[in-house]
Amino acid sequence: MSASHRFAAVVSASALALTVSACSGAGDTTAPGADAGPPRTGGTLTFALAIDPTCVDPQQYGLNASLNVGRQVVDSLTDQDPATGEIRPWLAESWEVNPQATEFTFHLRPGVTFSDGSPVDAAAVKANFDGVVALGAKAQVASTYLIGYEGSTVVDPTTVRVAFRAPSAQFLQATSTVSLGLLSTATLAKSPDERCQGALVGSGPFVLESYKQNQSVEITKRAGYNWGSSLWGKQGEAYLDKVVYQVIPESGVRAGALESGQVDAISDIQPQDEGRFENGAYTVLTRPNPGLVFSIQPNLARPGLDDESVRQAIQKVVDRPELTQTVLSPKYKAATSVLAAVTPGAVDLTSALAYDPAAAERVLDAAGWRPGSDGIRAKDGHKLSFDVVFAPAFNASQSVLELVQQQAKKSGIELRLRKVTASEAVTVVNGGDYDFLFGNLTRSDPDVLRVSFSTKGANRSHLPVGTPLDNALDQQAQLGDQTARFAQVAEAQRQLVDHGYVIPLFELAQVHGLSAKVHGVILDASSRVNFHDTWVKG
Amino acid sequence: MARYLLRRLLQAVFVLWAAFTLSYLVLFALPSDPVSVKLGGIDSTATPEQIAAVRDKYGVGDPMLVQYGKALRNALRGDFGHSIQTGADVRGTIGDALPETLKLTALALLFTLVLGIGIAVAATYARRNALRQLLLSIPALGISMPGFWVGLLLIHVVSFQWQALPALGNQGFDSLILPAITMALPASAFVAQILAKSMTTVLASPYIDTARAKGVGRARIHFHHALRNASLPALTIFGMLAANLLTEAVVVETVFSRAGLGRVTAFAVESQDIPVVQAVVVLSALVFVLVSLVTDLLYPLLDPRVAVAPARRAG
To answer: Which residues of A touch B254 (CB under 8 A)?
Structure first.
């Protein structure tokens, strides 16, 4: 749930990832509906969630289930094109960023109101950003987007200027996320707990009607909505009258509920259930999560892992395509970098991540790591035997890691899987007691690299200070010019892969199942569902 | 009898206090704390002051004894505070979830009784040995089937294929039937096994022979004499089963996507949500204490010898 640290909470990060994303590189971002006739207005969509949202306030919570609800209820200043990564108008018609990337001026669309009737004006925007900063750590994801926030100035009712103490190139993309979506000032005055439980008023195309814990969330169409994102297919109100989210934790039951028509759509189809929906009677809507792919992150403070040749060897002994082909499904892609390919600024490092056990063994031999009697390589009494801490938030985690374990063993490297609960993970991570951490972090901006690997952050990897990597991570955060910024982003990815600072494995994907009557579901740039353009037939 | 009741009441209070205190100690001994879990670790953006503020709000930064004292005092007033994870009032959370689980448990108990007694009586009443053996093997089968699997099977066949009953959520009486059957199957197998065994023993005892010699009918012997006397051991088991059903509810409510105390408990334990866990533990202890009290008070009704003993001692 913490966006600020990918491995900070193995559990929460994975939970975030679980809910966060889905849009295949091919751009399978909307459900096909060409042959379904003209869109129809009205009707109810029932959508099964895999986990209870726990807290429906998108500013506070980072769980996918919460954000897939929150996205319909709150609007954002901007939107991000899932295909190009470009930032596009939504509540802000236009904006200017100063060359230092410290000041962002937004020009708001006039006449927009929250569903309680209050205006979405410059004062409301300022109140929201101030509010997120005041929430502090309680705003798990949103607060990380406002690091270095100096304050907002109301220039006039439709113009607001947001200032940062240090350059913050990531902020513009952050304004497109549901985490920085706008809530009415009356909502901001409520207690964080009340907001979590459903006292939530936004300006979105749907209005939150009820949230029953562990059971359901109901949202209804906002009459008179006329300020949709410039990226949506339909202008004006949503097609659907109502969306009912139902919490169905058991994956087989979720799949069966869709097959038997008890629900119209389901989230989080497990790889083993995908086959049931590939017969044309359903649409499987999928998109990889942008951001950090699922990886194992070495702790350089541990003996063995402080040797770069060992990390480079491990990079080479992982057969990534085998992971997705055998234990996952074609919906999941082998990692081609530290960043998922759909992330703006991602570069293709496939050759550096190629499976090459022979080369790995040469590197280890040269560094003096020789196989012992048990087949495990050792040097000076130290064995190449490492634990991998993971929390079972993503269902297939264990099988993926078991395969990695087998692959590594062939070259004399032992990986011991250490499964922990969400609460244990926090302790283990904070205590520094791990060799490798397994996790991912979803975000559609490459700044996610700095959050995870800058030595100025929590530095879970114990990376050395002042390396070219550190420099690249700092630079990209400060460059307003995208070309210059992405050059630094590319450099950071190469440094991370070449030095084995992280071992990327596979890209998480959001996989949703829709019945034949559901059309026009959008997966946004962060791979969250958006139901504005969605309609149901019959 | 009054002294007996008073003693039982004091025992009950002690059990409740011990449950509260033990769960508190256990949660405290765990290496992490719920605020860290909620905030996803002490990350780069949550400053120590911010974390301290959140910890203060939930009082998890205080020394253990202070926290314990506060929690106990509030609990005595029935106030278990707010859930750290969901922010909801714990009383409200439990208040919403408990009725759903009680309904489910009540129906499951009813099914347990009907099935358990039915199988035991049929098995012991059967004249043909093959049939008797078949009936007697049902309980072992029932106990060995995991509830999770039975639930999924029922959902897929009865709900998804036949579309006969809803499989999901809390949608009235219909949606209670399948989860209640799921919980009742292993429980009734237990009851059937105990009851069949004690009926077999009773049916072999001398007073039954006497009754037979006097010409009492087979059915009357079976249902009136034997069943009544044989039900004591089963009743003891039944009290335990009632308390165990809460544990079972964790699995069944997840499989059937039902909101209830089981789901609340599972999530609270996973996230170390101390206020919620405390409330659930105290509530479960209360249920257990009440059920065993009721069971004990029912004993004399079934077997007058049980009542005579304490009454005599009381003078």
So the answer is: 249-250
